[in-house]
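Below is a filled-in request sheet from our internal design queue. Each sheet records the structural input a requester submitted and the sequence that came back. We keep these sheets so that new team members can see what a complete request looks like end to end.

REQUESTER: design group, bay 2
PRIORITY: normal
MODE: inverse folding
CHAIN LENGTH: 69
BACKBONE (tokenized):
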């Protein structure tokens, strides 16, 4: 079941039941003890390596594709 199907089913509920469902969902989000998993992409640049190249971006295409200058 995708989000749109779940939403459609929830909208079929009478208002008091819908409100109770929303409260239960919000409570479950607040009480969640699951640790957030950090995306590895955020770690890029935390430990830079000096390889002696002053600025690799200047000749980016040449380094990656062997394009002439």
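RETURNED SEQUENCE:
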């Amino acid at each position: 079941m995708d989000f749109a199907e779940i939403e459609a089913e929830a909208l079929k509920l009478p208002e008091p039941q819908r409100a109770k469902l929303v409260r239960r969902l919000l409570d479950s989000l607040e009480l969640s003890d699951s640790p957030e998993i950090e995306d590895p992409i955020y770690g890029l640049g935390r430990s830079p390596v000096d390889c002696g190249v002053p600025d690799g971006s200047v000749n980016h295409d040449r380094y990656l594709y062997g394009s002439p200058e």
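SHEET NOTES:
- DSSP finds three helices and no strands in the chain.
- The two ends are 53 Å apart (CA to CA).
FILED BY: M.R.
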